[in-house]
Write a structure and sequence with these properties.
Layout: E1 2-6, E2 20-24, H1 31-38, E3 60-66, E4 69-76, H2 83-94, H3 103-116, H4 120-131, E5 134-139, H5 147-159, E6 163-168, H6 178-188, E7 191-195, H7 202-211, H8 220-254, E8 257-261, H9 268-301, E9 308-309, H10 324-329, H11 334-355, H12 363-379, E10 386-392, E11 399-406, H13 411-428, E12 438-439, H14 454-468, H15 474-494
Parallel strand pairs: 2-4, 2-5, 5-6, 6-7, 9-12
Antiparallel strand pairs: 1-3, 3-4, 8-11, 10-11
């Protein structure tokens, strides 16, 4: 879902090709914030969001583009400045005893006001409405329904256009004035919806776009097709995210770090310790860098272009990945590791039984299950000591130290938890947020991996085992990727 920004000239706001909606309301009600979150745009150069009122001083066209085609057009308008005075002028222009003012009266009001250089903001916001745009009226239900708001509602009612009112909730709890707002808006608008531009997730954004279906049936087929494209794009993003996560896990599980030292020096034992420390430090620094790169890739997929990932807690230079606390919080429990290890080991044993045409009488499955489960049980709570290999360096002498990966069977699950936490953070971040350009890592209070269904844990465990043993075949890789896609979808539903 990618918006395009175009400061179109008057007379070019509305097109018959796509549904068009003008976003209107008093200044500082959150119109730009709603559009930023709705269109997933965090670039202030396209949609400026500021605590200062009146940032939008002219109409601005923002188009929702899916699969290369414009599907919806929104026009961000300047807020009402003098609604009470404008309503009075409209009624005087229309005259008494002539029913309710309509489009002809509003056109005459705009023409007269421009000539007199009055009501400039009201004239600008009425331009796209006179051309045929629908209305998305944004209000803050935490503010009382003043007479000026009632004047705005009345002017918008005069247009006769399809109208959706949006209660832009800010913060938790039900705003004190929401019932009054709903009472007044319900009399003048086709539909009233609540929305929090600073907390809305994809489901809320999708629901708001789908609600536009309900206010003008003439656009139903087009908007239904738009929703289908939106869902397809979101699924594609989810699959791309799973690919990045899988690539990170594969690279981390295969990572090895090397260092060298001389055996014939004055203090070979000291040189060996220093080489091990250097290789260990570089190993964890690379893990941290890969984790951040993956998080940045996920931010890009979900269009958080103004945000960069910071180091995940537990993956920094202090090597907290080797702390007992990290392993208590993240990854699987010892019992889960035992069960998954047994299941994966039994699966390998079943392969042995098949290869011997059943003549092993099931002993392969029994041995595989016992050994896999026992290995996970005894290593599940061990702080991750890096695997250490030593090798001579040929005729020049000296030795090469090779470190990695950690021996702990939970290593892959801790890494998986770290990136799933990142994913949840990214999905939870609304595009209207400004001022904090970094996605700081967090330590989970509760592991995501521990809550995965057993079949997903087994599919991932088989893939982890295959990668660790250089047997990353297509079948196990595809099953692991599918398990990741299902997990990402479940995280979205739980938000």
């Amino acid at each position: 879902m990618r918006p395009t920004n175009d400061a179109a000239s008057p007379g070019a706001w509305v097109t018959d090709a796509v549904p068009c909606f003008a976003v209107v309301g008093k200044v500082n009600m959150g119109k730009s914030a709603v559009l930023a979150t709705l269109l997933e745009e965090d670039d202030d150069r396209i949609i400026r969001i500021s605590p200062e009122p009146g940032e939008t001083t002219r109409c601005q066209r923002l188009s929702l583009v899916l699969d290369g085609d414009e599907r919806l057009r929104f026009i961000d308008t300047p807020g009402f400045q003098q609604p009470i005075e404008a309503l009075r002028a409209i009624r005087i222009l229309h005259g008494d005893g002539h029913g309710t003012p309509g489009l002809d009266t509003l056109r005459a009001f705009v023409a007269q006001s421009r000539k007199a250089k009055m009501f400039e903001d009201e004239c600008r916001l009425l331009e796209p409405l006179l051309e045929g745009a629908g209305i998305l009226y944004v209000v803050d239900p935490g503010v009382p329904v003043y007479d000026s708001f009632l004047a705005e509602i009345e002017i918008l009612r005069f247009t006769g256009r399809a109208r959706l009112a949006l209660l832009n909730q800010r913060g938790t709890g039900k705003p004190a004035h929401e019932p009054a707002w709903r009472e007044h808006l319900g009399k003048a608008f086709n539909l009233v919806r609540a929305f929090d531009a600073h907390r809305a997730r994809f489901a809320a954004r999708r629901d708001l776009l789908a609600a536009l279906n309900q206010i003008d049936e003439r656009d139903r087929d087009h908007l239904d097709a738009t929703m289908a494209l939106l869902d397809a794009e979101w699924q594609q993003r989810r699959e791309q995210a799973a690919e990045h996560i899988q690539s990170f896990l594969r690279a981390a599980l295969r990572l090895r770090e090397h260092a060298h030292y001389a055996e014939d020096g004055p203090a070979p034992a000291s040189a060996r310790r220093e080489a091990v420390q250097q290789a260990s430090r570089r190993y964890f620094e690379r893990i941290s860098a890969m984790e951040r790169e993956t998080a940045d890739a996920l931010l890009g997929i979900y269009r958080h272009t103004a945000v960069q990932a910071q180091a995940m807690a537990g993956f920094g230079e202090d090597l907290d990945l080797a702390s007992d606390e990290t392993w208590r919080r993240l990854g699987l429990t010892r019992q889960q590791l035992t069960w998954v290890g047994a299941a994966v080991g039994a699966g390998a044993g079943i392969g042995l039984d098949a290869a011997t045409l059943g003549h092993s009488l099931g002993i392969g499955a029994l041995i595989g299950g016992l050994s896999g489960g026992a290995l996970a049980f005894f290593k599940g709570d061990v702080i991750p000591t890096l695997k250490l290999d030593m090798a001579r360096l040929g005729p020049l002498g000296g030795r090469r130290v090779t470190l990695g990966p950690p021996r702990n069977a939970n290593f892959a699950w801790v890494l998986l938890d770290s990136v799933l936490i990142r994913y949840r953070q990214i999905l939870s971040r609304a595009h209207a947020r400004r001022g904090d350009g970094a996605l700081a890592g967090e330590v989970a209070t509760e592991s995501i991996a521990r809550r995965l269904p057993g079949d997903r844990q087994k599919a991932l465990a088989r893939w982890f085992r295959g990668v660790a043993r250089d047997r990353d075949d297509e079948e196990r890789s595809s099953a692991g990727w599918a398990a990741l896609v299902e997990t990402l979808e479940a995280i979205e539903r739980d938000l």
